[in-house]
Amino acid sequence: MGSKLKNALVPKHEILDEKKSEKILKFYNITPNELPRMLKSDPAIRELNPKVGDIVGITRISPTAGNAFYYRLVIEG
Amino acid sequence: MAVRKKIDKIEFRLFSSKMIQKLSAAKIYTPNTYDEDGYPIEGGLMDPRLGVIDPGIKCKTCGGRLGECQGHFGHVELTRPVIHVGYAREVYLLLKMTCRVCGRILIQKEELDSYKLENITPTESNAIWENAQKVSESEGKCPHCGEKQVKIKFVRPYSYYEGENNLLVTDIRERFEKINDEDLRYLGLKVRPDWLILSSIPVLPITTRPSITLESSDRSEDDLTHKLVDILRINQRLEENINSGAPQLIIEDLWDLLQYHVATYFDNGITGIPPARHRSGRPLKTIAQRLKSKEGRFRKNLSGKRVNFSARTVISPDPNLSINEVAVPEIIAMELTVPEEVNDRNIEELRLYVLNGPHVHPGAHNVITPIGRKRIMEENKEEIAKTVTEGDIVERHLKDGDVVIFNRQPSLHRISMMCHRVRVLPEKTLRLNTAVCAPYNADFDGDEMNLHVPQSEEAIAEADILMKVQECIISPRYGKPIIGGRQDHVTGMTLLTRDEVELSRAEALDITRNTVELPKGKKRFTGKEIFSLMLPKDFSLEYKGKQSRVKIDKGKLVSGVIDKEGLGGILLEKLFTRYGSDVSREFIDKSTLLSIRAIMKYGFSVGIDDSDLSEEALKKIRDITKKAKAKVDELVQSYHKGELRIIPGKSMEETLEDMVMAELSHVRNAAGEIAEEYSRHTSSLIMSRSGARGSLLNLTQMAGIVGQQAVRGKRIKRGYNARTLPHFKKGDVSSEANGFVASSFKMGLTPTEYFFHSMGGRESLVDTAIRTARSGYMQRRLINALQDLVVYPDGTVRGDTGVIVQFNYGEDGIDPTNECYIEGF
Ligand SMILES: [Mg+2]
Ligand SMILES: [Zn+2]
Ligand SMILES: [Zn+2]
């Protein structure tokens, strides 16, 4: 089986660097605790070797918004 | 954000009999409640140690008075133990899983040892539960002591048999007591299984089952008290019988009765046993019944509550009201109040209301001063009126212009509750403009609606700005107008804006009175000119209406007829997006008034002759029907010969069915075309063409042919053996024997046709009934899941703790009532 990340139905997942993460938290005026979560073992990010506490940026293709952005906090599991 | 404490975990456990006794403020042992003087008996169910329900008495346990003392639990010690019905199944499983002699789990020691006892996972203990049952089911031997096991039978709701023998509850308890704590940890249990057997039961505090004193000074006890009396009575009798050495059979009967009463004390809706009844024959409402279902504590008192400052009555239409208004009967307006603070501008007015008192319309009920609240009455109204000063709050009657929220159930979407302005009028119904029926889904066949009066300045402002009817013209569901002219409005406007309409000044004045101003000096008006008076002067639009292309140039209707698309569709939508809600409201108010006057001027009625067709047209329809029937026969023949060309992926039968269906539905379409072509210019046709009411299909069915009836999307096939009705020969495959209705409603249906039509009709009735039930349940689940989500000013959707759910509302941040993005989806 090939990489799951390459399937057209899986939106783009990327681990944000510290600077970008900071920016997101500042923009929404939140702590990481207010972010939606995802498991470290989630198939969509497993190959990216995420660390607990990383913020994953998800870019979804939307018929109305073009690109829709979403962020999740990586948690243990 | 509020300070939050994190709950680490919540664990639900059982009480042991010891804990029940420790919790108890009083041991209850006698079924008698009051002595001859009417005082509660110690040790009875109304024992004063269980709390207070009478004012002025202090609680014997905590010393609190009524309202301070929450009540205290008591307990009953049962003469013989009984099963807890809520755990009857768990008792059964545990009996199956453990050895009948040594009490160990019926699993090999080696297998048990393979699990780590310190941290056993739920999956692992589930596996143990599963495996442990196998030995006794196959009547194998205990792997620990070698005893042969006997199959356990469970008879709902609370009987157990080992082979043929009835297992007594005391035997079960004995077995459970033998199960060792280590084994319980393998099973993931944190409670002793013998706690599933009740030897004491808690008695609810009297505050939870207060007795009520009737007018005749009789006491009437709560159902739970009745139930507890039953338990105590049987408990006492059982004890007496045991002490007097009664035969085992009698004791077991009483014991079983005790089990029944304790079980129904918890839940009086157990299947398999008759519900315990009140003397009057009404089933008792015991603990489970208090909580469960629509009438239970959760849905009746916690998810929904009764409110003050509300009214409900029958609704009726009033075209002279603005869509923003609601007519409130004077008697309701004198009951509902709005608190208004007295200031230098309204003091004279409010003083007048106080002077009018509570029983004359613009009156008032209460004055709230810094000292307190005073009720205005006939006797003291003059005096109070003199003392009214700035800063006081007067609770005055509802009056014209007040802001209220109007609602019709089922409140399925947000526009089921909209903000209206009050018009206090005589008579006894709440009245609304018919253009606002659509969002409420209201009609006037006896519908009732609710009215709520916001009580603070903030609430009033919020309702007025966010919920006003004119702000809700565009539906948030599909981005098009939901409020607007309909039915007679559409017909009337269609009649008025026909090309040939010309009116004298007098006629035009009659139609436009009180709505729009006619230009001075002009003697004759076309209908289109009158319509144009309602449009903004710089409004241009071209669109395809239901019956013609409509061209509006600089506020003038140049060509085309105004129909549904104009009164409630694209024209209104463009007005709303370009000019806003005020202009749109004015347009709806005026256009509906005008169109009603127009339809009354011309007159409009429907007669049976609307569905008359010429002999020629009827003959054409008959020919088509005959041809189609012949074609169907032909198809059936070739099916029998096996010559039918099979549609890929379908069987021979399915292919025949499809082709027959296609042929017959073609008949109705063709008949519809003929009906339209030949029908005269009737009222029915005007209505269906303008989109006011009715479709071409309705007309076709009345004048031409009703067509194929379907059940479950197929032609009618079932009924009797090899035929649909006894009127046909067995194996009749003709179209009329399978639900094809060749008659029209006008001509009348034959008995068999009528029956087939009823079958189709019944199906659609059943479908709607099921659909509403199902969607109602789904709605409830969605509401419970989503009720705390809020869209923040930055466009994020967050939960009640501030957790982000969406980073931009709906992924794109679009509010469909404000944008035209919906086009093209
Ligand atoms: Mg109705
Ligand atoms: Zn107390
Ligand atoms: Zn054993």
Main β-sheet, spatial strand arrangement of chain B: 9-15-14-17-8-16
Task: Name the strands of the widest sheet of chain A in spatial order.
Answer: 1-3-4-2
* Number of separate domains of chain A: 1
Mean pLDDT of chain B: 89
Describe the largest sheet of chain A: 4 strands, mixed
- What structural class do helix, strand and pairing data of chain B support? alpha+beta
Intertermini distance of chain B: 39 Å
Under CATH at level 1, the class of chain A stands as: Alpha Beta
What is the arithmetic mean of pLDDT of chain A? 88
CATH topology of chain A: Eukaryotic RPB6 RNA polymerase subunit
What is the count of β-strands of chain B? 29
Number of helices of chain A: 1
Structural class of chain A: alpha+beta
What is the CATH architecture annotation of chain A?
A: Alpha-Beta Complex
Shape of chain A: globular
- Multimerization status: heterodimer
| CATH level 4 superfamily of chain A | RPB5-like RNA polymerase subunit
Which fold does the CATH topology of one domain in chain B refer to?
A: Barwin-like endoglucanases
Polypeptide structure, described:
The complex is a heterodimer of chains A (77) and B (825). Chain A has one helix and four strands. Chain A is an alpha+beta fold. In chain A, strands 1-3-4-2 form a four-stranded mixed beta sheet, with no helix packed on it. In chain A, strand 3 (55-62) and strand 4 (66-75) form a beta hairpin. The longest helix of chain A has 11 residues, at 18-28. Chain B is of the alpha+beta class and 825 residues long. Among the domains of chain B are: 85-194, no CATH class; 310-471, Barwin-like endoglucanases; 488-602, Orthogonal Bundle (Enzyme I, Chain A, domain 2), CATH 1.10.274.100; 609-747, Orthogonal Bundle (Topoisomerase I, Chain A, domain 4). Helix content of chain B is 37%, strand content 14%. Chain B is built from 26 helices and 29 strands. Chain A binds chain B through residues 28-30, 33-36, 60, 62-65, 68-71, and chain B through 794, 796, 798, 802-805, 807-808, 810-814, 821, 825. Residues 51, 59, 61-62, 64, 69, 72 of chain B line the site of one zinc ion (ZN).
